[in-house]
Specification:
The protein contains seven helices and nine strands; from the N terminus they run αβββαββαβαββααβα.
């Protein structure tokens, strides 16, 4: 049971963890999910960190070493919201009410992340791919992705009335190989 289960009204087994990993890593210059931090791929750190908060964890947008995986929806190349849409649909299929999403470079999630994101829907203001979302919002994500407007996480958050949360210590956001090198050299 999660440290925050009493506060959430649900325990960690009711939350599907989703590592959003279907991006092209254009700014990074190579496959960011497989880039190594402390000797292990970034995606492995994200999976381990997310498992501390969720009963079940999936990877969205790619396959990875035996982890449960789902393709982005409605198609590949839709950005992080396509991964989240896939996770929301998967949570519905599994009968789970909520999804906790993180990027593939989530190497330092706060221990009280679920507590900070409850009540949901809520997201980390500086990094909106980190959020706690209702599985029932899958249709809203798909509607945005099917439209001509912005396919951003913030557009989705706005549409479903999610609140922005500021964390005392912002999560590391690794966009380039230089960012990863800096974190590796100087620590979190």
């Amino acid at each position: 049971m999660s440290c925050c289960a009493g506060l959430l009204g649900i325990d960690r087994s009711a939350v599907l963890g989703a590592v959003i990993a279907g991006g092209r890593s254009t700014r990074f210059g190579s496959d960011k999910a497989l880039a190594r931090f402390q000797g292990r791929p970034l995606i492995d750190h994200a999976l381990d960190n997310l498992a501390a908060h969720c009963g079940q964890v999936i990877v969205c947008g790619r396959t990875h070493d035996g982890a449960s995986a789902v393709p982005d929806q409605p198609a590949a190349g839709m950005g992080p919201l396509g991964g989240l849409a896939a996770a929301l649909l998967e949570a519905q299929a599994r009968g789970l009410p909520a999804v906790l999403s993180v990027p593939c470079d989530a190497i330092d999630l706060p221990q009280d992340l679920l507590k900070r994101l409850f009540p949901y829907p809520a997201y980390v203001e500086s990094l909106p791919v980190i959020g706690l979302w209702p599985a029932a919002a899958a249709a809203d994500a798909l509607a945005i992705l099917d439209g001509n407007g912005t396919h951003s996480m913030k557009a989705f958050a706005s549409r479903i009335g999610a609140r922005a949360v500021q964390l005392a210590r912002e999560p590391v956001n690794i966009n380039t190989a230089a960012d990863l090198e800096r974190v590796e050299r100087h620590g979190l």
